[in-house]
Amino acid sequence: MKLIEVPERILVIGNGIAGQTACDGLRAAGFDGDLTIVGAEPRAAYSRPALSKALLVDGGSHELAPPTHEATEVRGVAAVELDVESRRVRLDDGSDLTYDGLVIATGSRARRLGGDHSVELSLRTVDDALILRERLAARPTVVVVGAGPLGMEIASAALSAGCRATLVADGPPMLSHLGHCLSDAFTAAAVARGLTVVLGSAAGIDDAHGVVLRDGSRIDADLIVSAIGDIPDTEWLATSGLLTGGRLEVDSRGRVRPDIVAAGDAAAVPTPTGIRRIPLWSSAIEQAKVAANALLAGDDAPELDLEPYFWTEQFGLNLKATGHLPAAGEPEFLLGDSPHGPSVMRWTHVGGDGVAVAVNHRIPIPKLRRMAAAAG
């Protein structure tokens, strides 16, 4: 792809952190043309990670600082079709918006065990979090399906609210995200606090409000919450010709074509292990910065060089991690001597790159990144 003419009108589809960061990046790079950002939710942008942490547990803040990019915001409408030849996006209110440059940052939505009309709750939006918090306050029996970080955080919040909680996991909790060492530590902390972990694959939800497992057994609960992954919001691109095997793939600068870039949960980006989505808050920010520059500078823009950062708070443990997870094998302890208490650990991957993890330790992220970089 080559350098393009600097666009006069840039349209950003998606009002989450990727879309907002792209707007900030465009202004920081000197773009002073017409900038419009469209969001399907009627709310202003907010911190999505806070929903399953501060907001769900104690009503803490999920708000972001007001934007300074002076974009025209269009809220409560979703994109339904893109015509790349006429450079036109059709919205679900029947209106069209045209552009010279386009940023796709539509994110993703929760995957649901029982379909869109199921009795289960999921956690993706502020409204989801407020409903779930209200339901937990009544102290129902809770079944959480899904043992990734989100499922574990929801289960932790349920226990904190005084609920009896069961987690349905198709394998050791967070194993594929963190590796054996950290998975074992968090599972032990969860069980010690009263979580019941049932290993098995959920097949669906029956009419009697129970989770049915593939072995035929069922688990009854007053409240069922699914946390079984996400689905990228890219269906509106079905006729655009931009999807590759159903995925929105971008190059190392976030470009789909010279006049269109993408960032965040909707985009599949190049990584050392292939082209894939990285649905993390920090990844969305880094992708959006790179994509914004590429829309203005083309091949002269810097390439994406992700420094993955992940954090979670659950069952009395606070984890911060830098580097490409999961971490395989046993760690090198830089501080402390056990992942069950205050500690800083490091792993070295084949090839020399590293992972550094802090558990219940107040360590600055730049320092943690330096520790990861010194691996090997």
Share in β-strands: 25-35%
- Say which CATH homologous superfamily of the largest domain is assigned: FAD/NAD(P)-binding domain
Oligomer: single chain
Shape: globular
Helical stretch tally: 8
Structural class: alpha/beta
What is the C-level CATH assignment of the largest domain? Answer: Alpha Beta
Write the CATH architecture name of the largest domain: 3-Layer(bba) Sandwich
- Terminal Cα separation, in Å? 37 Å
**Number of domains as seen in the coordinates:** 3
Query: Might you state the CATH topology name of the largest domain?
Result: FAD/NAD(P)-binding domain
Extract low-pLDDT stretches.
none
Which strand order does the major sheet show? 3-2-1-7-19-18
The residue-averaged pLDDT reads 93
Q: Say how many strands there are.
A: 26
Q: C-alpha Rg, in Å?
A: 21 Å
Query: What share of the residues lie within helices?
Result: 10-25%
Major beta-sheet overview: 6 strands, mixed
